[in-house]
Write a structure and sequence with these properties.
This protein has two domains: 3-146 and 181-247, Spore Coat Polysaccharide Biosynthesis Protein SpsA, Chain A (Alpha-Beta Complex); 256-303. It is an alpha/beta fold and 309 residues long. The chain is globular. β2 (51-58), α3 (61-73) and β3 (77-80) form a beta-alpha-beta unit. Strands 1, 2, 3, 4, 5, 6, 8, 10 and 11 form a nine-stranded mixed β-sheet that branches. A two-stranded antiparallel ribbon has the order 7-9. The protein has helices spanning 3-19, 35-45, 61-73, 88-98, 117-125, 156-163, 166-169, 204-209, 222-232, 256-273, 278-308, and strands at residues 23-30, 51-58, 77-80, 103-107, 111-113, 132-139, 150-151, 190-191, 194-195, 199-203, 236-247.
Length: 309
Amino acid sequence: MNGIAAQIVTDIVRDAEGSKPKVSVVMVIYKTGEAMTESLACVLADPRVDELVVVDNGSSLIEAARLRGFAETDRRVVLVNGQGNVGFARGANLGARRATGDVLIFLNPDAFLQSGCVGELLTAIEGRPVPCIVGGRIMNADGSEQRGARRGDITLISALLSLSHLARRIPAWRQYEVHWEEDLPPEGIMAIPTISGACFCMRREDFEAVQGFDEHYFLHVEDVDLCWRVRQAGGTVLFQPAAEVIHLGHTSRASSLRVEFHKGVGLARFFRKRATTGGQTLAAWLLSPLIVLTAVIRPLMRRVRGRRS
């Protein structure tokens, strides 16, 4: 190969590399435990990841030391700490602002990227109109699809009918079922109302178009709200079944009662937020205490059943 031909090949390679979007993974950590180490390792093993921004909302001394170790041995790791436990939504926004990537992938610290996951997310979002959000297929450790991986439109009515199991028992109300994980997975990319916040992808312009996460949510429901706002802005929420992630769930050492309380508060806020009529607003406010109480009772009932068994 002569010098001119070699230069042409070099220029082509450089242009191809320059056209690839820079990918930043954003991870918010709070007392995650042992799963965190494996999750970080899976991220850094993916060749498409250019940057890993870890927002430390609260780690033990051992976990903090592990995070520093990752940062010292891999220049792609950026630590954001010192802000205390500011909640997931605010922490994720902090991470997004610190990230330098064109594409942002938000990942739970107890979720393990499977081979090719990042590439599949990038393929799904490429060329889509702004705003767009793409969720991966969230699976349990046994390979089954996890509850909440793909969901319908979460309204006050659909949540009540789904929670009471009436949506599944009465065929005419099947359209109100929120959880779709028992349905056959689509063969390709599919538009759905709501994806899981355990692993999803947005371009920076998508994220900024909807002004990121609503920081009034402390923990849970912020992903539901984000999907709703993307759709309200005329955008698309996509489910990419080829982007697989193993999500353990319930690894945090935080109190389950506290976690469920925040989930209930978040749901109550979401229903009030999306109410468009006076009747809907009144119903949302009147049912808010019941929603929070129902969320708090769930872990208590699990404890009671555990003691009886």
